[in-house]
Design goal:
YqhI domain-containing protein, transmembrane, mainly alpha
């Protein structure tokens, strides 16, 4: 399985994450926007793992 590199993720996803992380958007709206990228061929798992921190590790 090939891994998606960070530079392959659209800039919009990073912008949406920034807005979400700083309280400008709730999680539901953030995930809905990411869902629009899934429609054009991105994996939601890849997007969320690249954008959201892994709080369970450590």
């Amino acid at each position: 399985m090939s891994k998606t590199k960070v530079n392959e993720i659209p800039q919009e996803a990073f912008n949406w994450y920034d807005e979400y992380a700083h309280g400008g958007m709730d999680r539901r709206a953030f995930m809905a926007k990411l869902g629009t990228l899934v429609a054009v061929g991105y994996s939601l798992t890849v997007l969320t793992s690249a954008l959201l921190p892994n709080l369970s590790s450590g």
